[in-house]
Fold each of these.
Amino acid sequence: MAAPKKGRNASAQSKPGRSLVLILIAIVALTGGMFASGHTTPRLGIDLAGGTSITLTAVNEPGQPNAINKTNMDTAVDIMERRVNGLGVSEAEVQTQGDRNIIVNIPKGTNSEQAREQVGTTAKLFFRPVLQREAAVPEGEKPSPSASGSPSSSPSPSTSPSASGNDEKATDPSADTTPSSSATTQGRAVTDALKADETPSPSASGTTSPSPSASGDQAATADSKLQAAYTALNCADEKQRNEAGQNAKPGDSTVACGQDQGVWSKFLLGPVGVDGTEIDKAEAIFDTQSAAGWKVVMDFSSKGAGKFADITGKLATQTSPQNEFAIVLDDEVVSHPYVSTAITGGNAEISGNFNQTDAESLSNMLSYGALPLTFKESSVTTVTAALGTEQLEAGLIAGAIGLALVVIYLVAYYRGLSLIAIASLLISAALTYVIMSLLGPAIGFALNLPAVCGAIVAIGITADSFIVYFERVRDEIREGRSLRPAVERAWPRARRTILVSDFVSFLAAAVLFVVTVGKVQGFAFTLGLTTLLDVVVVFLFTKPLLTLLARKKFFANGHKWSGLDPKRLGAKPPLRRTRRPVAPVAPVDPKEA
């Protein structure tokens, strides 16, 4: 009798324990990571945890019929995310739906009226001159009052209008080489985009001492009440930061907070010099000619160009920080570059210490200030926590009923084999639960009601894979083979069928995830995840476990409760080789011999 060929099938048959150990190690590692992260339950969506869902519809402004496009809608989503997260709602969801709707889902624990007010209004972008600036003081410390900003550890930026935006001072003998007491931490310069390569005359240098009248005019804009508010403001405190500058009128001075490289600073700002709606275009570009890196280029309208020339001309005669203007979006300073000369061409650029992400972020904010879009509320849905709990309980009950029916069918039809299927279902359920719990903090995945439905549908898909394999094994037994070879011969055909079936399910889930938005994506994501886990469980658990059990007498001998009884399956008798009858040999006559 020839020895069995050594190969992949022989190795898989002889060492199924490796696969079982591998999947058990994966489960233990993922479970340990779940407990280590502190997120031991899946993050619930708004329909299960409760909250507010707001649908906003974009409306064109008069004279701007084509303003509703993907770029403008994506920019609006970015701004709305900043607004709701500014309310302390890190789990809020803001996403587009179709070509003109934006869905804002805010979980419970948030003031819904304040959230509606925040996301339902058009962004307000202003250019305000900086009167004073001071780094934030950590909570618990008392901020020291200063008339011109507290000392900063960073040196004063160059006041040259060069596009490079270097942080060091220009080598001017008349310049003060002592670091300014209120130096900017960004070191970004605003220059005339049409004259970026020209060298400024000494008279245009920002190192010129301010005239008494100029500084006096600026200081006069801040009354004692506002000065007191500025002195008391501590931007390290989130509550004070969110309330700073609210309801400030464009013609009045105000206070605001802004962040530079992770450090919050407070600002005392003058009246609005230029409205953000007077920007025609803002774009982030990479300067390849002067090797200045990334910069933001702005084009103003004719009216805005005049205002910008006027304010930059006044700021150019000041010293830091009063030669800076603050770009204020929704009462928060997003940038505060300095000016060294009047910019009269209507084209300006902000440069210095930009990477691509920062430049594109600032250009988007500047663009949104001129965005000719407004939004109206199409619907506001409030989901209470009680209703969400009822929906979750109903979904879990439906899943339990579906699982119970599958188990009853498996036990009634497959008997002993059902133990393998049930164990595989438990492994799949454990992996699904742990991975969903980890995906919540990792990518923001929230388990909503459609996602629960996707998990319920996945029970049938997973059970179907086991049934395909079991039926292939039973077919081999019907052909008269014993269990151990039947398990190995059935696997290649069952594997091919399972992979094709799961691929179709995963493809459908992927297409559904791409072409849909909102809660339907939760269904598609869960369906795709469980389909992938089905492949993992079948290959690393179901098949190796059946290989091991095929060596046990209960299954190998075809016990009537094993589900593999040859008589019950109508198996053919094993094929046996029969000998041909030997023809009789006639006796030989001695005479003839």
Amino acid sequence: MRVGIGVLGPVVAWDDVGTPIDLKGPKHRAVLARLVVARGRVVPVGRLVDDLWREPPAGAVSAVRTFVAALRRALEPQRPPRTPARLLVTDGPGYALRATPDAVDAWRFEDAITASSTSPRQTLDRLDQALSWWRGPAYAGFDDEPWAHVERSRLDQLRLNAIEQLAEARLVLGRAADVVPDLDAHVAEHPWREEAWRLLALALYRAGRQGDALAVLRRARSLLLEQLGIDPGPRLRLLETDILRQADRVGDGPHPGLGSDSGAGPEQVWAATAAAYDRAVPSSSGVRLESTVGLLRSLAVTGAGGLEAAREQRITAITVAEQLGDPELTARVIGGYDVPAIWTRSDDPAQAARIVAAAERALAAGAPGAAEATRARLLATIALESRGTRAARGPAAAREAERIARRLGDPALLAFALNGVYMQTFQRAGLAPERDDIGAELVAVSTRHGLVTYEILGHLIRLQARSALADFAAADQHAVAADGLARRHDRPLVGVFTRWYRALRLAATGPVPQTEKFTHREAPPAYRDAEAAYRDAAAGLADAGMPGVEQGLLPLALLCLRVWHGGPVDFDDDTDWGPYAPWARPLVLLAGHRDADAAAALRQTPDPPADLLFEALWCLTAQAAIAVDDHTVMQRARTVLAPAAGELAGAGSGMLTAGPVACHLDQLDAALRRGG
């Protein structure tokens, strides 16, 4: 007996002649519905228990098994005793529904609305039939169940899209007047769907009702502005313009809503392409998620708002991919976000940890034959998102990603992997030359293969490395190259880093004060200029959407400058040191003549994180240790800083410096000799 299952309305089942099958009680229907939602994947018994009861009773597991047994008898009444079920099967820790795609109305509906058609007439017939399968809201009776909510919403969006596609097919066939009543009811029920308003106005216009068409567009505009505070989208605006101009073929051709005599600009091309994509690609398709990641990549480099939005939506895309239960799709969604990163402190450490965990799950779930490139992208993602931590996994993942990329000979993959390697090249002081080599290779590979964003990254890495090595002539060249690429390719965030670099350069190359200590009033002009440059750079960073860079950076830059040049370490009590508070606190306490408190704070100061400011923070710690005569910390600081003796402390960040590491080492040696 062939069984059909319906969830586009109340949950029901029927036999091969259409006779309803008794599914017993609501819990039986809930089990069946939950398995339909899983789309053939196994649902563990424990999950079924949690989904069926908010507070599971004693014996809930046995009850689930009883429900399953009853469903099997109802759905396969002719199955001989003790033979395995073929439809509702036991698999490992739970159950799965092994139905064919056409056996469930929701699955059949999705296939129907995404099928290709050879003509508008065929499209109309196909969509008309598919919409006839709806008997009410999907999964009716389970409205408040969390496991049904996402699927109900997804199916409803597919239904609304299909209604609009059906109306468009009727318009193409010249049946504008027939479309108007249905679309009028549609927009009344779903007033936020701009495409529905557009189709209604277009139908009215083609039915000879130009005034009504314009009234509909203005009603849509008023509703969106008053209720949501947003302007109509480009397709609605363009249709209104075409109607007012009485274009000959409003809504015809490959760009709906665009008259034949209108010149298409970027806005129109974008709107038309997005609309075509929306019609052609099912909303439930994994392709949409992968396309979304591609869009997020572009969004992340457009400016502060784009970066923040991309960061927020990225984790959502990963979560949705995991919910779909396709490990390979999840891996592609995670690894597809190959946005270059230059700063070693994450903007959102909690989110970074979630991404690392998701990438590790995707690696663990990957099939043995999964693409090596996909694996390398997951590893590079782990390396990037582990930045600033001391976890051994980050460097190991970076090295493995690089090996795979070199073996495959894929330049884009190699650039992504090298970004991960760069982020993990902070395990000790004095590694600026290694990072310079990474930057040089990134520039070379990216220039050959047109990888603009990674070419910019390579120049910024070299800017940092050459600054650390006090080679400002070379660093200047990389700053100019990065700015030039940013202007040509519209990468506004690059200027944040080059502006800070120029403040650092001024601080590092201005005349050193002749006195050991001085007040703000006595400060020489070069010192005051450096402080002003830092403040200007910080003002440009305030709205850049990079909290991992911004938090505490300005006071840290000023502190490093003052400690190096003997300026007054006087800061307001409410100064926000961000993540750098542990290393600033001993020096601030010393400036307030609280030596005992400073010594206690120094003893609690942790080792700096493995990042771009590693040497600078150690130099601040060293100066505090000298001031309170803590020989243990002094010796530790000297050992850690020795490999960077030829560098400027902190200048490898491209942002700030605490002066030559060699000067701090000399002061440590002198203090240790005095105490020895």
Amino acid sequence: MIKKRVLTFFTFFCFFLNFQCSIAQENQGDKILLSKLLPEIQKRYDVVFSYVDATLDAVLVTPKATSISLKELLDGFEMETNLRFTIINERYIAVTVFKDQIQELDEVYLTEYIASGISTNRTGQITVKPKNFGILPGVTEPDVLLTIQALPGISSINETVSNINIRGGTNDQNILLWDDIKMYQSGHFFGLISAFNPYFLKKVVVTKNGTSAQHGDGVSGMIQMELDEHVNDSLIAGAGLNLIHVDGFAKVQLNKKMEVQVSARRSITDLVETPTYAIYFDRIFQDTDITNNNQETNNTTTTNRDFYFYDMSTKFIYDISKTDNLQFSFLNIFNDLSYTENAILNNRQRSVNSGITQRNLATGLTYNREWNPAFSTQLQLYASNYNLEATNFNITNNQRLFQENDLADSAIKLHTKYRINENFTIESGYQFSEIGITNIQDVSNPLFRSERKDVMRNHALYSEVHYFSDSYRTMLTFGIRGNRYGKIDTFRFEPRLNFRQQFSNHFSLLVLGEYKSQAISQVIDLQNDFLGIEKRRWTLANGTSVPLIESKQASVGVQYTKNNLLITAEAYIKNVDGITTRSQGFQNQFQFVNAIGGYETYGIDLLFNKKWHDFNVWMSYSVSKNEYEFTSLNNGNPFPNNIDITHNVTLGGTYSWNDFEFSLGSYFRTGRPTTSVGIPTVANGEINYNAPNASTLDDYFRTDFSSTYRLTLSKKKKIYSKIGLSVWNVFDQQNILNEYYNLDNEVVSEIQNRALGITPNLSFRVDF
């Protein structure tokens, strides 16, 4: 009965729409729908138009004489409409809305990748569009930093979004861009939740190799979170709630040329303690000062634990004209934890307050100018400030420790793009940046204060050429970037390569390569720094104890797609030099050693993805080897990297039925390397370790489930809602993420950090 009503409504709607179009056509005199005219033009000039159906909705044009040239015809349509007709080659013509950038034409997306809203393009990049995101196992909302961990070659060694490992690299070796602004904080709840509201984003682009020459840093990978560039046609808004936070966003058109976008998200953890929050709290704060102080041996108790986080962002867009565009964006990310430590000393009750705050403020201004259809420029200024502060009271020793890590990054960038002809495009630019980092440590008993500030000014010039064959089967991008690092007086040339050859409609080859470098990294001085919660601090290269990190990477991949079947395979090798032991988080015999070295990793990433109607299944598999190379450690012999994972397998599927969507998936990886203790366990007053990273933890295994139900609250006003249920680690598998040893009074104790157990979450969302 319902299906009949829907069919009747659809038939009536189509009839009504056709009737209205006919009336409109009559009222427009000789004008007709462009969509009706294009088939005739294609036959007349032997060309093919490529466009999104919605682009031509209700677009009326005046028919032109058959004797005019194709260029004259298209120029006339551009004058009459808000459309652009771009000749890709002698046969293919792309039709887009005039305000879109030319760059979108180069990003030809091939297929959905794993799930709806995830796709891959011809250059090997992976794109996630939160607006179109469907569902993944254990994830009902498009948390971008959780979502990308389902991709081959990308994982998190400690199950957090603040420690994304791309092909064996540490998190600080990734460049994270929000609206082209560098970010230095990626997680809420100190790593369990992405710090970026996904509903505010237009798309997220992940690059593992073959990075554009316009981007520096990020020797392991790049994650770009892009926002809208132009005014939307109508109001877009939404709000949601789950067992951790509440959020809302709105994109409000002030007029046809200006729009304001706002977004806000805040935890509910300080208002109500949900079961999900309790599980998250125990997971993230295990073996930290906040839990270690709550031991009977210390005669202390911890009370008044107060934790919350929020993020808020805004963007102002001004489409000054068809060729001029101005954008201003702002983001504030904040985490705060405080607690009270109580103890009875000398028969007196004493209480002290400790806590930690983490913040990233970012603001950017961008001006785009299209001088003509072939030449455009972009000028960008941005500032990003990261701050981490912790106050830690030791009540039994009457000592207060204050620590701060402050980073200020500002930059200006000029980018140009020139389309030489149908086959060649050249992009060039210049970037200047200044990064200042301050580290403070202040102890009350005994009195001690250390404050150090380092500043580095960097210059970069870059240029790259894009080549597209007439058939679009051959694509080549070759670029070079020159970086001048001021403080360490170093200059580097960094070539980049991205080549794709399509041999048939179903099979293609992809060759990627890059040289990259970065002057900033995260280090750990002591494992209990910053309460042991966020113990990493940013630091600048100084050319001696902290060198410039340099990398080189090459990969060869193949892709086969046919009949909703996608198979990809990519072999890679990557070498990274200039890392320090302090940046790797050693908790064995190298914990207090300052050494400089590198690592080399190589492997293969595979993906199988098949769709049958409403059912979608995928399997990703990565096999790799990742070894350290420190000449001063382990007698100069290579040994396994702390995040060396030999095998990593993801198997999942989704099924859609009416307004329901279900997803189930399992994740398996071999255990991470660890250093065992020998016999005797103590020698010369120190732990007697065996060979570094010669053992492995137990294999990691987890199964997740999620489901959503979509409701239409108002079809006329286009108001929809979605209810979601997710269960992380359905079988409550007790996975060990890390294992290390402590020495206390000649007694060695084993410490194990465990992963999340079974963790349910509920969500409700309304979008319009």
